[in-house]
Design goal:
mainly alpha; 21 helices; 2 strands; about 75% helix; about 0% strand; globular
Amino acid sequence: MDWSLVAQEWRLLPSVALQIVTNPLLMATVALGGIVGMIVGMLPGISAVMAMSLLIGFAFRVPADIGLGLLIAIYVGAMAAGGVTAIMVNIPGTPAAAATCVDGFPMAKLGRVKEAIEASFSASFVGEMLGELTTLLLLPFIALIALKLGDWEIFLVAMVGITLAGGLSGKNPLKGWISALIGLVIAMVGMEDIWAYPRFGYTPELQRGFAFVPALIGLFGLAEVFSVLRQKEPYQILGQGGWVTLNPRLVGRYIVTILRSVLVAVGIGIVPGVGESAACWVGYDLARRTSKRKECFGQGEVEGVIAAEAANSATSGGALIPSLVFGIPGSGPTALLIAAMFMYGIRPGPMLMIERPGFVAEIVLLFWLSAIFTRAGAILISPSFIRILSSPREILLPIAAALGVLGAWAAGFTHFDVYCMLGFGVFGFLLRQRNFPLAPMVLGILVGGFADTSLRRALLTYSADVASMFKRPIGLILFIFLILTIVSQIRAMRRSRRP
């Protein structure tokens, strides 16, 4: 992999772009896929992975460019629209939109629905475009770094995310760490991945473990329903009328935040298995730490929405690198893209650019085209979904709860997942009454599985010389950053307690 291959892809961009835009069937397919993706993204629990897996059989019956265009458009559309229900009803449409709830929903309660959704769509669009551009520019450099990431480094990345979760709890990092620790313990339930030993597996269902989607819907969605029902004064989200468009002024004002989230997301995207769901939290936390309005985060700060949405959309660019260069999926949706490539006889790997010149350029262009069509569709239907999601709570909450049950059922098609969603909803409601943040727990559940597996694999690999783990350059940098993060948050907590 060298710069000449990247230059080759750039030279082929115009001709590949001409082939795409002069193919009416491909253009129509991308537009249709974007609509399907937006619908999927707005339905809690019905993730992009699920929609792509249902349609991958159809993709097998059409040419490669049509099939890949459909799957990519669904992926991009779901990432773009997942923040809508996160903002309007505090239920993330996709796991990657969970961080958007933290500031998006308070903005909606303050009557700033249109501003929040415009911020979400604008940041998501720019993040998608810049994420793919960064991938095309830095492909060989990031691929070189990806080759050097081992199990120890992946574990440290997960731990950095957990310590950053302390910052999501505001002035008390301790509650954030406790919440994240609970999430890690929940992630340990079930068969472990190395020896298939059941942990806390007292029933056959528990041996399978807790699925992430029911936990997410319960902690964010059902807990919110319970909290609203407990309030004496009911509230209703008041959505402004008119079209929701991309907001260049907002993008220009927070361009530094967007660029930072894009770079972080691309870096996280190259780590296999982490993906959009973790990148949104890291992007959000970095925005909070560097902002002059730290105290406003969590109370309706538009910069928080922008940071989270730019990160979750830009991660696709980073996730493409291990997918195309090594054949290792960087996220769930890219795993399905790899499966589709193999169906079409396309072999991802180091020789891809040599065997198929212009293919990487085609994939990047399809992502860009999907982003454009998705936002155009969102602008056209924005008055309708704002009006629907602005309905009184007596109408909206039962529908939200029903969609939550549907999403939990669709996660594994078992009654156990529905019961889990209900249990997590009650548990999340009780924690919210004690002012424990739920976001760190979601992050702990998300990263707990692969963090545990990565650590134990690293210990097995270096069992003869454990100290050598700490001599790996990237691992050493991450370890030092982890210690500094913990120390800085402890100091911040002590300063906040001083009179």
